[in-house]
Specification:
This protein has about 750 residues and is α/β, with parallel strands linked by helices. The chain has 26 helices and 29 strands. The strands form eight sheets. Strands 11-10-9-7-8-12-13 form a seven-stranded mixed beta sheet, with helices on both faces. It has a six-stranded mixed beta sheet with strand order 6-3-15-14-16-17.
């Protein structure tokens, strides 16, 4: 069958033409779209306006934006139901069973099938509604959200983004029950929101209060946090009347946890909260079944609060079932399909990027695996080795750590000149092969088996075919190195909370990485010229300017925030992202190059983009694992807060600074030594030599302050997805920044 036989390239909002072929077969046989079509974007003739570029759409469907695969799959609920019908007995959700008494995870993964998950969510939803409707602390006279609990079965089909259901709040690290809860909410037309597992009390209170959420679905470790939060804000959180614990509660005193669990239930009761665990809810649902209450396309799927890099209260983005479906449709049409694929859920599910990828996985019959409960960065590698996923998503700051670790054991190995020479040849050979043309994976029978398979196994990448990077720009050199050393594809995606995460993505084996690929079939884009910043539409390599978006995948408004909504849209319905982009002249590929507000001006008038500076240093120096670059309009040079691996710090001090190992027996001693002025001078010189001419002289660091992990969640200087909160970071590190400027530049000799 030809493209024209299967796909609708006319003015239809659907990807496929009407046919009698089952949609699961259409997905299997015809998606993703042919790479030669979807990998580029095309301008629509005659759409240029003064100060604005032409409108660009995906090359595969320039005539009309798509919103779903077929008319019958217009909600996430229907997408998952279709997967259940098509893949009922296949693995759906994978997890490591947990021994709560001994605090130990099982040695392998257990799986629930699609049919089992479907059955469980129906019982879960039935019990969930029954227990809320019979909650003794409900106050329908005072709280609208409590009224909506009672009227939900009657009114569910009338809800949309202007009149939503009561809101269920999800609050835990990634786990099977999180996704089960999300599917349950979708099946019963219950809007949900999510708290990041590492959010502070004030932001959690803000979200709960703003949404008037009556119920929190959370892990045991956070039950007491919610109780204490209501105790701290008794009036603002009076509407919180129920907690569903995702871990079992021992109410029969069968284990050593019995007394603690009964105390938790009593504490909740004393603050007018009914506490039950998920197993109890499911059992109630078996006794009092309620048919599923399927959403319509306008039903509000979730309120996703932006992670917020400014330190201000996050904005709640309203994302309907229609927007979610468009987001999944985009991924289905462009991300590679792998038979019996396994995806590992690593990024926080409270972040829309991970939810989009999870929804994609569950719409095409893939299995989603989760980290072990109570996991650590070290146990994550153990999980990957056990689960052996085929694909996963992550963020640049994590990938630069992978790059640094691999370089330190291969091309920058401090202990073996032989390894340095061998891996330099192997990896450079792979890079050269992958640069020949789009789609070249650089496979090499000898190199891959003898040298690189061990690296893949060390990271649990035995079966990994590709990883998606997103959330922030990544250095092309990092992508090239990881593609070659790990034998994987590495497409870069771009999106935001407001676009239900990704709407543009590159191909896994792009010859010259750096782009975010083409705009997807569900969105159109154009650029607004920014002459004051030097971004013009007539640039030789393609137009540059602020990126504007429109289409079925783009949100319509923020939750209870009309002012921010008006700021974000123009009169023609274009969403102004605040990101500066370039659209390549020949292929219409998207490059994110700046933020409209994300630059600072030095005292001599130079403009500096800090993310560019940070990415260049991180990808050039394996010794670095974190960097926050700071500039000041009253100063003429940059300073940096540097994160350095302890082992790398020791090697650097011994090899470059000639410090005796006897002085480096503890982490305190290591930090003391590396922060001595004479050693920081050597470090600054080394870092600047590694970055070379990738940066201009005014973009290079002149002084640094070193810690092992300065950019930590518990300091609130990064978001849950490791985006730097610059306004918060500048306050947190004020004393260190002031000290560096008072000390002056550590750069010696000729100008950089």
């Amino acid at each position: 069958m030809t493209f024209e036989d299967v796909f609708d390239n006319g003015d239809s909002p659907y990807v496929f033409k009407p046919s009698n072929i089952p949609v699961s077969q259409l997905i299997r046989d015809h998606l993703p779209l042919p790479e030669k079509l979807f990998k580029d974007s095309v301008p629509l003739p005659g759409t240029e306006k003064e100060g604005y570029s032409a409108i660009f759409r995906n090359k595969a469907f320039p005539a009309h934006l798509k919103e779903a695969l077929i008319p019958d799959l217009d909600t996430y609920y229907k997408l998952f139901k279709n997967a259940v019908q098509s893949f009922g007995d296949k693995e759906c959700l994978a997890y490591r069973e947990y021994d709560y008494v001994n605090k130990k995870s099982a040695d392998g993964y257990s799986c629930l099938s699609y049919r089992e998950v479907d059955d469980m969510k129906q019982k879960y939803g039935s019990g969930f509604l029954y227990l809320l409707q019979n909650n003794p602390y409900k106050n329908i006279e005072k709280f609208v959200s409590h009224q909506k609990i009672d009227n939900h079965v009657r009114d569910y089909n009338n809800y949309d983004i202007s009149d939503i259901s009561f809101v269920a709040t999800l609050y835990s690290a990634n786990r099977m029950e999180w996704v089960l809860s999300d599917l349950m909410c979708t099946a019963y037309s219950i809007t949900n929101t999510a708290l990041y597992d590492t959010l502070g009390a004030d932001t959690s209170e803000y979200i709960l209060h703003t949404t008037q959420s009556p119920v929190v679905i959370t892990s045991r470790e956070h039950v007491l946090d919610i109780i204490k939060l209501k105790e701290k804000y008794p009036e603002k959180l009076e509407h919180v009347i129920s907690i569903v614990c995702l871990d079992p509660l021992d109410m029969k005193n069968e284990t050593v946890l019995g007394s603690e669990d009964r105390a938790l239930v009593a504490a909740a009761k004393s603050h007018r909260i009914a506490l039950v665990d998920i197993n109890q809810v499911i059992k109630v649902g078996e006794i009092f079944p309620t048919p599923e209450l399927p959403p319509n396309p306008e039903t509000l799927y979730t309120i996703s609060f932006t992670s917020g890099t400014t330190g201000a209260n996050p904005k709640g983005v309203l994302l309907s079932q229609k927007i979610c479906t468009a987001g999944v449709t985009f991924v289905l049409t462009q991300l590679p399909r792998i038979s019996n694929a396994r995806s590992f859920s690593f990024l926080p599910l409270a972040h829309i990027f991970e939810r989009q990828v999870c929804a994609f996985s569950l719409s095409c019959g893939n299995c989603v695996g989760f980290p072990q409960l109570g996991g650590t960065p070290l146990s994550l590698i153990e999980d990957l080795k056990l689960f052996k996923p085929n694909y996963m998503c992550n963020v640049p700051r994590v990938f630069t750590k992978y790059e640094a670790a691999i370089k330190n054991s291969t091309i920058d190995n401090p202990n073996s000149a032989f390894k340095r020479a061998v891996f330099d040849k192997v990896i450079n050979s792979k890079i050269e092969a992958q640069e020949k043309y789009d789609g070249a994976d650089g496979s090499h029978a000898v190199y891959d088996r003898l040298f690189l398979s061990a690296i893949r196994k060390a990271f649990g990448f035995d079966n990994m075919q590709f990883v998606v990077t997103g959330s922030a720009p990544i250095s092309p050199s990092t992508v090239k190195f990881l593609k070659a050393s790990l034998c994987i594809g590495m497409p870069q995606g771009y999106g935001s909370t407001e676009s239900f995460a990704g709407f543009a993505i590159g191909i896994p084996h792009e010859a010259n990485p750096g782009s975010c690929g083409s705009v997807g079939v569900t969105t159109e884009m154009k650029l607004r010229e920014l002459p004051s910043m030097g971004y013009k539409l007539d640039d030789p390599e393609g137009p540059r300017g602020e990126l504007l978006l429109r289409g079925p995948q783009i949100f319509k408004q923020y939750f209870h925030n009309e002012e921010e909504t008006k700021k974000s849209f123009d009169d023609e319905g274009w969403f102004h992202t605040g990101d500066v982009a370039r659209i390549s002249k020949e292929k219409g590929r998207l490059f994110i190059i700046d933020r409209v507000k994300n630059f600072f001006k030095l005292s001599q008038g130079e403009y500096v983009t800090p993310e560019k500076v940070e990415n260049k240093y991180l990808s050039s120096s394996s010794i670095l694992n974190q960097l926050y670059a700071h500039g000041d309009s009253l100063r003429h040079f940059l300073v940096g807060i540097v994160g350095i691996d302890p082992e790398g710090a020791v090697s650097f001090l011994v090899d470059k600074c000639k410090v005796s190992r006897s002085k480096l027996s503890s982490q305190e001693q290591i930090l003391t030594e590396i922060n001595k002025k004479e050693n920081r001078e050597i470090l600054v010189s080394y870092l600047n030599s590694r970055v070379g001419n990738q940066l201009s002289g005014f973009e290079k660091l002149h002084n640094v302050y070193v810690e092992f992990e300065p950019l930590r969640l518990d300091r609130d200087v990064v978001t849950a997805t490791q985006k730097l909160k610059r306004p918060v970071a500048v306050k947190f590190f004020k004393s260190q920044i002031d000290a560096m400027y008072d000390e002056g530049s550590l750069v010696k000799g000729p100008k950089l």
